[in-house]
Amino acid sequence: MDELFKIPLYQRAILATLIIGFVNGYASAFVLLHRSPLKLTALSHSLLPGVALAAYFVGLGVLSAFFGAVVAAIIIGVLTVLLSRVTKISDDTVLAVLYTGAFAFGIMVLQKIGSNQDLENWLLGNILGLSDLDLWMSFAVGIVAVTLLSLFRRAVVINLYDPEVAASLGIRTRLLEYASFAILILVLVTTLQAVGCILAIGMIVTPAAIVRPYISSPETLFPLSGLMGAAGSALGLYLNIHFDLPGAGASIAATLAAIFLLSVLLRSIFAK
Fold first, then answer.
1. Rounded to an integer, what distance in angstroms lies between the CA atom of residue 54 and that of residue 188?
2. CB-CB contact of 26 with 204 (8 Å)
3. Distance of CA 160 to CAs 32, 53, 173, Å?
4. CB of 173 closer than 8 Å to CB of 131
5. Helix orientation angle between 37-46 and 91-112, rounded to the nearest 10 degrees
6. pLDDT tens digits, 145-179
7. Domain spans, the chain
């Protein structure tokens, strides 16, 4: 078993898991405080058509998939705002309609070009198949995302708890919210090849949900959630390799969910 971790493929996968796990965990603090996991679920699914169209027109590569997914998320986000204003229907309803349609369209395009393996990779992830370029992109985006969220962490927390106070302090709340979601989109995009667009939401929601009941400071939630994301994801990958389980991405998401359930159970027992 130990010999496996000396192989470059597995070393790259472990390093990518730690990086992606920490970045997603760090970002999950914002998602939990903002109470927006359902919107993130929709956005994660809406990335697929961008990847599919990139594969159709220029071929499926790391950069083409990255930019295709970002463009798709921006389009879905803008359409959600515009349509909700025109139709007087809530954002959540419009977003649900758009993301299911976009997700279905992405599947059809990938199946049309005969990319079944690629379809499975983008739906469920393939962290063991990440290249050096994938790893470097994850690292670069991770640094940018964590740095920006750290710089604006105090403003984000104030805005989430009391937008009026934030506005009185000169914080541009609307711009801050858009910028925060733009960062979350970048984090989701870099997570796609690791765990896929279906399971990505688990990595960007669960770590903070595990940590939150045990701490009182919202600002402390960010780094601790990052550490939980890295540790839980690494454990999931280890269990996947050790027990030769199918789907590393699924193992990571399932492990994080199991840690969450265990933490809730232990807290309820000792609370008595």
1. 17
2. no
3. 10, 36, 9
4. no
5. 30
6. 999 989 888 888 888 777 788 778 888 877 877 78
7. 2-43+85-94+113-265
